[in-house]
Design a protein that fits this description.
Two copies of one chain form a homodimer.
Chain A (H helix, E strand, L loop, with lengths): L12 H14 L12 H8 L3 H14 L2 E4 L3 E4 L8 H20 L4 H15 L3
Antiparallel strand pairs in A: 1-2
Helix pairs in contact in A: 1-3, 2-3
Chain A binds a DNA duplex through α2 and α3.
Chain lengths: 126, 126
DNA sequence: CTATATGTTATATAAATTATATAACATAAT
DNA sequence: ATTATGTTATATAATTTATATAACATATAG
């Protein structure tokens, strides 16, 4: 799986990395139980500090996406996290902002839903 | 229009304020051409610094939501910003993250789309 | 004209966040 | 024994976020 960091982005490196790992899991590029590179290896591969990778692994562990074994390192959890109340609050909050913003700009409901659908189509590979 | 800032939130104050103004415009609580409180007035009302309000007004001016007249202060723009390529990149990026994340957690396409629809229903006050 | 209110600009400061750099430790695998 | 793993501890630097004062130019109100 290829990780690509945009060092010019306003999005923090650890946030970009975390999103790409979740994307990899969602798309099946990272299988359940699959082992991730060690913090040192991945840090070297993408040219960032080992602590930044370690931070991401621990965030994703706390969210329930990864498990970390002292011996083998990080791997994709066999059981994905649930849709918690906290997570629902998060996506509703973010969706509201995106929808309010696009609504002001004249984007209609159908157009917005079609964008969502196209992302799902890409995700479930057509 | 009532502004409510959560000082415990991890979301910056200026971000919270900006989102609520856009929400107000989307919901019609703030009409086109309507005058907003002065930076000093609003800052005092919600208990924050005038520069934080000023920052928000200028961000929203640059995005095309507000116009700022030296005499009358900030007001809601009569012409809302367009769905620019930059904006499309933004919402696709954010939607991808939300969808990948919820997809991992077992939320299906229909459930997700229903959340979006309910936000639209609230927005168009059904 | 005077006083007030407006956005604006300029500094300065403090706290938190983000990212890196070294170093060391305990433990498991080779 | 050596190596690789996550982990912990400091330290530092840059950036972001938020506040605090002060001042300026200008338009409006009295």
């Amino acid at each position: 799986m290829i990780i690509k960091i945009d060092f010019e982005s306003e999005i923090p490196i650890y946030e970009q990395l975390g999103r790409q790992i979740i994307e990899g899991i969602a798309k099946g590029e990272l299988k359940k139980g699959e082992q991730l590179p060690s913090v040192r290896q991945l840090a070297e591969d993408i040219g960032i500090n080992l602590h930044t990778v370690n931070k991401v692994y621990n965030i994703l562990k706390n969210e329930g996406f990864l498990t970390i074994d002292r011996r083998k390192g990080a791997m994709v959890n066999n059981l994905m996290p649930e849709v918690t109340e906290e997570f629902m609050d998060f996506i509703v909050r973010e969706l509201k902002f995106i929808i309010h913003n696009s609504y002001c700009r004249g984007m209609g409901r159908e157009e917005f839903l079609n964008i969502c659908k196209s992302i799902y189509d890409e995700l479930e590979n057509k």
